[in-house]
Amino acid sequence: MKKEQILEWLKTDDQEELEKLWRQSDKIRRDNVGEEVHLRGLIEVSNFCARDCGYCGIRVSNQDVCRYRMTADEIMGCVQMAVNFGYGTVVLQAGEDYGISREWLCDIITHITRETNLAITLSLGERDESELIAWRRAGADRYLLRFETSNRALYDRIHPPLPGRFSDRFQILRNLREIGYEVGSGIMVGIPGQSFDDLANDILLFKEYDIDMIGIGPYIPHPGTPLGMSSEEHLCLSGEQVPGTELMTCKVVALTRILCPLINIPSTTALATINRVEGRVHGLSRGANIVMPNLTPKKYRELYEIYPAKASCDENADESNSRIKNSICAMGRVIGVGRGDSANKKTKAV
Ligand code: SAH
User: Fold this and answer.
1) pTM, to two decimals
2) Fold of 3-349
3) Which residue, by CA, sits nearest to atom 25 of ligand 1?
């Protein structure tokens, strides 16, 4: 698909045309990754963060956040729940927390790989290459790092680097692949200042970088952040601003599936947050094949407030698990068995 065509889809409101897009992306999903929906248990291990991202509620300068870091025992308790629920993967996510040391995490990874068959995904921000290598050697399988937007000027505005460093998430994504991780990335849809042209470029880059997993969520303003407090002044002019709506997010999911048929695409928590009733199901019926149920202990969930009113904050792991499984089965889809490695990566390894 050419950029012009992507732009046409992003800009159309024609319901009948969009039904065609949904049908096409759903068929491509079915033909390439099947009816299985793989579940990844999300463990939000820490909300400490060294970074000051303009969009994120747990940014270092948000003084209102009560900070926590889970203990190894607490993490292993969540890992056990993932096993009990039959999940194939655990995702360890956190702010960019340098209190999470290389050795401490190596021990936890080793523990998980000794005691379970789970795949391990890490999502810990822009860590040093030596740490990424050590964690891969200890047994981590995948790494998630969204590039958030491919517009460099916009990225620089919302994602200031650590002092004396340069933040190049594309370079890190290349390194992650070299190190042998299955690589996940993604974007937010509707960042103030993000144009339709930017969004079309993002989608084309998913394909160009041959990423194995792409997470796509709407940008949700957080009142404790600079971007959330003053988004008006950053908006693109003359109809070029992308709205952070459910519809726009679904269009990006559908187009991504069409361009990258074999990859894993989650129906994100952010999508489920802006439409509590149907967001998750819409994502799954328009191209997505992954859901990440939350395993974080309830007392920490609400403290991991990257954006407000995050779906799943009002329930515990048991409740999230059964609600998500029921809705997948009600769609006539099947709960994935096993690790659910990316079909994209397997193809390349042969
Ligand atoms: N520290 C890790 C994990 C961040 S949380 C990292 O930086 O990679 C995971 C994702 O949540 C981010 O990559 C971002 O795309 C998303 N996110 C953060 N703030 C958000 C907001 N206000 N609205 C929607 N998504 C947000």
Assistant:
1) 0.97
2) TIM Barrel (3.20.20)
3) 219
